[in-house]
């Protein structure tokens, strides 16, 4: 830590250098000339030279220009490629090597008069010292090496260059980059293919060279993952400088061009060329990512007057490792700025089956994409990703942060599809094919201008997008308005039940989590009935609403529902046949679920066992049985559109809010509802409601509570059903907790974090005051009942402790609640289905105590354990009411 | 009204080290299954509401009032009843202490007293009188043998300590 800060202080007074090795006289002359233009110094010694400047960025710019100059195509070498036999589809791609050739480093050299101090990463300082002495001719005792890390070594060249530059300039030198002049040439790749009648790949030819012909053929570096009849691979890469990324770029762009020419979905086209058995692992990865990105289920975004929108896919395979990227981006029509919106990327291993799909860190995604579009990007895990798990989906933003000249990271299979995915998305958006990175705003703008210059027709894609944009804003808006106001909706055609193998295991597992967060089974399972087969009667102020069968049974369940029908039901509350569902089904919350999660949920439900079961019909009294009226209700209260994260809040907070407001539909019980059953928002959001005869406490700061709910207390409660400071989950909350217990802990953490943030101001903790002795005397009966019936488990001390938790009533939310209902529920009916296994059980006392005894007991508990709260009135009547309501 | 449905199912329990499967509803109190199916009559039916402690057994070593815990709670846990401590030929030191002190009148509460003492001594091998009284506070005895029981627990603690010493020697 100390060393690093020292280094930064030194940086101000030191020179920064970018070192070029493997130079010859011609390159040295060129570099010297270019250094004058760039306003930096060029210092050469033997086969090594360096651009030196006060700021690292200037040195890097000079090196980049030199690389660009060196990379001028070589006419003779290109001729080799074109001399081959032509194939029906032929395209060429270029990959600049500069960015891969430049290696970032961090070596500082300074002379304090007695010794040359070198700070760099080294695992063996002594050996480095000896090598430097040998190469520089200086005595080894002159060097003082301070290792900044002993895990990985800086290149020896960088340290030697630092010493050389220190010697030549007489100033402290900070070497920030090393590049080999040999590796700066562009890679040229030429691909050709012929197709059979069905559009399948027949012949496949691949040539790549660096224009520095060694005529050494090697094909092992250019595997083609796709099945073809006849394959010719030729890579002229004697120095082995072509990165895998370049091959992936050319191949994946080319496949995309062929698929586009044949008007086939590019993702399906690739799948058609991957073996169902040998490439099962790769197919599973692609399927999972496609589901995650809603590749097939979501219509292409329409774009608008300012931006063109597009999405692209690319895949790469090396040995038994795969990776794939799906990129969604916007292109500014005027400036050519490329704004990547979202990246869904993942990698996996294993030929026939894969254990788990690994996501990538957002930092790596951002680094790879930044390099390609020449704009510094920032990536965050999407709000529908579990925190800290390796995310598949990332939200991308342009950031104002200063770029670091190059990343230390070596190109890897994880990021190799990035370039082609972006190029394919750019084509999708603009109709212009970019066959060489980087996709900087200048290049994109030039391409857009070129394509739409007078005399040139608009590219095909752009015309289509324009029409789409017009439809979406004009006519589409009217249609949407008409539909909202129209009480009857069209049925969506039934489909044959989709096979569970349609989705990858990862997607189904994800859907299971969404279902758990949404507690589908809690409402859609009748007591003792099959899971999700429906039939539970929900008591609402308007009458009993019976839940439906959501197993994939084709006759009585949702087996014949297409995704479109399911999605409409979840987001708009309209059944497949077009009738309105009652808002007891919380579609107002589910509308906020992300597309990917909705796809996964559909996949999960469709892959569960089908149960033939017809639940009772919901019969509400007139006029509520006129389901068309719900359309009016929807017009008032249904807000369309999935959750939009708040960029000013943390990822954890956004994840929590997404879960709480979306799938979790916490507000369904914990927000008060108005006279016609809509959740009240604004100041009343999550301030407490009711459910099935229980009070759902407020989730925002409640001055009535003896102890404020903290994030940790909420986490414990949601995760285990018990918080030491607040009590146990009971009533309708118990099954909710039992589902939350199966979610990743980080998701529950996020929900706790968000809910805790709703009560940011600490409520002063009050010292419990002694209850009035006289008042307690009047409560003697209740006290005796408490000591006999309750104290064994609920006394502060005493006993040997019994199975389960020991909820202390002085901290219990139910005891300090304004209404006695929850406490009376528990006293009368006990807890026979605890939220989690470790909580223990409580017997119900409805058959032991009459209403008067229960009322006395409740009055005593209130006076003893919530002394600051006013006594409850009408306890005997309330007891009778709750006894009659039953469990 | 719908007909009452029997949800009886096979439930596998480990009691006193033996694993057995019985057919019962998951919500049946553990006490009934222990007494009726396992024929272990050490745990007694007292109040049926978890108040008197006569039904106490150990689940994973912790005292449990088996009349208010459904049999489902014992699935996957080790249940120990009075019979699991010792028998007439080889009584457990705690049982020996209760015999030596003749700490019973009707004896109905003694199962709970002994099982709670076991839970206490596992946690605190050398309790003073206050600790003993506090631990047995919620085990009810109607005959008034409290002083004999107190003496028995003191003696039991000594026996258990002696035995542990003998083992470690």
UniProtKB/TrEMBL annotation, chain A:
Residues 506-609, 651-759, 777-865 form the Cytochrome c domain. One of its GO terms (molecular function) is oxidoreductase activity. The keyword Zinc-finger does not apply. InterPro entries: AldOxase/xan_DH_Mopterin-bd_sf, Cyt_c-like_dom, Cyt_c-like_dom_sf, Cytochrome_c-type_DH. It holds the Pfam family Cytochrome_CBB3. Keywords: Heme, Iron, Metal-binding, Plasmid. This is Gluconate 2-dehydrogenase.
UniProtKB/TrEMBL annotation, chain B:
Residues 9-85 form the 2Fe-2S ferredoxin-type domain. Keywords: 2Fe-2S, Iron, Iron-sulfur, Metal-binding, Oxidoreductase, Plasmid. It holds the Pfam family Fer2_2. PROSITE patterns: 2FE2S_FER_1, 2FE2S_FER_2. InterPro entries: 2Fe-2S-bd (IPR002888), 2Fe-2S-bd_dom_sf (IPR036884), 2Fe-2S_ferredoxin-like_sf (IPR036010), 2Fe-2S_ferredoxin-type (IPR001041), 2Fe2S_fd_BS (IPR006058), Beta-grasp_dom_sf (IPR012675), Diverse_Oxidoreductases (IPR051452). The lineage of its organism: Bacteria, Pseudomonadati, Pseudomonadota, Betaproteobacteria, Burkholderiales. PANTHER family: BLR6046 PROTEIN (PTHR44379:SF6), OXIDOREDUCTASE WITH IRON-SULFUR SUBUNIT (PTHR44379). This is Isoquinoline 1-oxidoreductase alpha subunit. Gene3D superfamilies: 3.10.20.30, [2Fe-2S]-binding domain. CDD domains: fer2. The keyword Nuclease does not apply. It comes from the Bacteria. GO terms for molecular function: 2 iron, 2 sulfur cluster binding; metal ion binding; oxidoreductase activity.
């Amino acid at each position: 830590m100390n060393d690093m800060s020292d280094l930064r202080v030194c940086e101000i007074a030191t020179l920064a250098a970018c070192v070029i090795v493997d130079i010859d006289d011609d390159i040295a002359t060129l570099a010297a000339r270019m250094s004058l233009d760039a306003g930096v110094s060029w210092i050469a010694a033997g086969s090594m030279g360096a651009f030196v400047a006060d700021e690292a960025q200037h040195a890097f710019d000079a090196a980049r220009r030199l690389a660009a100059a060196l990379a001028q195509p070589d006419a003779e070498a290109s001729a080799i490629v074109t001399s081959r036999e032509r194939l029906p589809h032929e395209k060429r791609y270029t990959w600049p090597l500069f960015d891969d050739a430049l290696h970032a480093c961090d070596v500082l050299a300074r002379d304090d008069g007695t010794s040359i101090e070198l700070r760099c990463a080294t695992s063996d300082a002594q050996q480095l010292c000896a090598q430097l002495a040998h190469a520089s001719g200086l005595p080894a005792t002159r060097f003082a090496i301070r290792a900044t890390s002993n895990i990985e070594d800086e290149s020896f060249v960088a340290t030697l260059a630092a010493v050389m530059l220190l010697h030549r300039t007489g100033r402290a030198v900070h070497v920030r980059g090393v590049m080999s002049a040999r590796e700066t040439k562009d890679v040229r790749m030429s691909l050709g293919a012929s197709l059979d009648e069905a559009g399948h790949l027949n012949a496949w030819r691949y040539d790549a060279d660096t224009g520095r012909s060694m005529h050494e053929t090697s094909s092992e570096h250019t595997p083609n993952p796709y099945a073809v009849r006849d394959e010719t691979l030729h890579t002229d890469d004697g120095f082995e400088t072509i990165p895998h990324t370049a091959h992936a770029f050319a191949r994946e762009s080319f496949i995309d061009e062929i698929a586009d020419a044949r008007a086939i979905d590019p993702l399906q086209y690739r799948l058609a060329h991957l073996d169902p058995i040998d490439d099962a692992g790769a197919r599973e990865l692609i399927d999972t990512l496609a589901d995650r990105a809603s590749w097939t289920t979501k219509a292409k975004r329409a774009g608008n007057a300012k931006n063109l929108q597009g999405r692209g896919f690319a895949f790469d395979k090396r040995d038994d490792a795969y990776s794939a990227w799906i990129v969604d981006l916007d292109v500014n029509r005027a400036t050519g700025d490329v704004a990547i919106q979202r990246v869904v990327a993942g990698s996996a291993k294993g030929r026939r089956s894969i254990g788990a799909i690994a996501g990538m860190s957002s930092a790596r995604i951002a680094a790879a994409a930044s390099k390609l579009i020449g704009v510094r990007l920032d990536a965050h895990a999407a709000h529908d990703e579990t925190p800290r798990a390796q995310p598949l989906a990332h939200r991308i933003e342009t950031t104002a942060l200063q770029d670091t000249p190059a990343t230390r990271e070596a190109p890897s299979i994880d990021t190799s599809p990035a370039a082609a995915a972006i190029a394919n998305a750019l084509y999708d958006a603009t109709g212009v094919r970019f066959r060489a990175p980087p996709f900087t705003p200048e290049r994109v703008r030039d391409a857009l201008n070129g394509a739409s210059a007078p005399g040139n027709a608009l590219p095909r894609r752009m015309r289509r997008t324009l029409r789409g944009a017009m439809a979406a804003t004009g006519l589409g808006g009217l249609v949407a308005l008409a539909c909202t106001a129209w009480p009857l909706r069209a049925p969506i055609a039934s489909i044959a039940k989709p096979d569970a193998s349609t989705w990858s295991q990862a997607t189904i597992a994800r859907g299971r989590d969404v279902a758990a967060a949404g507690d589908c089974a809690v409402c859609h399972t009748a007591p003792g009935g099959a899971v999700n087969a429906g039939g539970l009667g929900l008591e609402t102020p308007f009458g009993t609403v019976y839940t439906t069968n959501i197993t994939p049974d084709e006759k009585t369940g949702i087996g014949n529902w297409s995704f479109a029908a399911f999605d409409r039901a979840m987001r708009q509350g309209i059944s497949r046949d077009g009738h309105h569902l009652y808002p007891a089904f919380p579609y107002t919350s589910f509308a906020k679920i992300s597309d990917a999660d909705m796809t996964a949920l559909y996949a999960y439900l469709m892959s569960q066992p089908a149960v033939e079961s017809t639940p009772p019909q919901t019969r509400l009294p007139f006029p509520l049985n006129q389901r068309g009226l719900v359309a009016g209700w929807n017009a008032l209260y249904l807000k369309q559109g999935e959750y939009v994260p708040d960029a000013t809040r943390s990822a954890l907070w956004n994840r929590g809010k997404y879960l709480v407001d979306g799938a979790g539909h916490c507000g369904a019980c914990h927000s008060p509802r108005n006279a016609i059953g809509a959740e009240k928002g604004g100041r009343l959001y999550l301030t407490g409601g009711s459910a099935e005869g229980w009070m759902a406490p407020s989730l925002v700061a409640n001055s009535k509570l003896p102890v404020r709910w903290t994030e940790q207390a909420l986490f414990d409660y949601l995760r285990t059903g018990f918080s030491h400071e607040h009590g146990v989950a009971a009533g309708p909350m118990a099954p909710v907790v039992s589902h939350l217990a199966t979610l990743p802990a980080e998701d529950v953490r996020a929900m706790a974090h968000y809910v805790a943030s709703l009560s940011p101001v600490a409520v002063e903790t009050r010292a419990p005051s002694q209850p009035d002795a006289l008042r307690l005397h009047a409560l003697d009966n209740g006290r005796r009942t408490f000591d006999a019936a309750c104290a064994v488990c609920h006394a502060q001390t005493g006993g040997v402790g019994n199975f389960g938790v020991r909820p202390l009533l002085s901290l219990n939310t139910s005891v300090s609640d304004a209404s006695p209902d929850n406490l009376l529920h528990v006293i009368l009916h006990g807890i026979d289905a605890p939220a989690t296994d470790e909580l223990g059980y409580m017997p119900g006392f409805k058959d032991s105590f009459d209403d008067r005894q229960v009322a006395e007991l409740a009055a005593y508990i209130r006076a003893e354990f919530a002394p600051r709260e006013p006594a409850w009135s009408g306890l005997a009547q309330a007891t009778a009411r709750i006894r009659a309501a039953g469990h | 009204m719908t007909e009452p449905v029997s949800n009886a199912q096979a439930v596998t329990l480990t009691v006193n080290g033996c694993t057995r499967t019985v057919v019962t509803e998951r919500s049946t109190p553990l006490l009934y299954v222990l007494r009726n199916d396992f024929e272990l009559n050490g745990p007694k039916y007292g109040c049926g509401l978890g108040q008197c402690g006569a039904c106490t057994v150990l689940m994973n070593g912790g005292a449990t009032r088996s009349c208010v815990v459904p049999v489902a709670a014992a699935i996957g846990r080790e249940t120990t009843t009075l019979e699991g401590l010792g028998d007439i030929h080889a009584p457990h030191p705690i049982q020996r202490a209760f015999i030596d002190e003749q700490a019973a009148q009707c004896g109905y509460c003694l199962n709970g007293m002994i099982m709670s003492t076991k839970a206490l001594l596992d946690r605190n091998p050398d309790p003073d009188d206050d600790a003993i009284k506090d631990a047995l506070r919620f085990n009810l005895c109607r005959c008034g043998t409290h002083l004999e029981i107190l003496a028995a627990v003191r003696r039991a603690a000594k026996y258990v300590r002696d035995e542990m010493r003998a083992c470690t020697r």
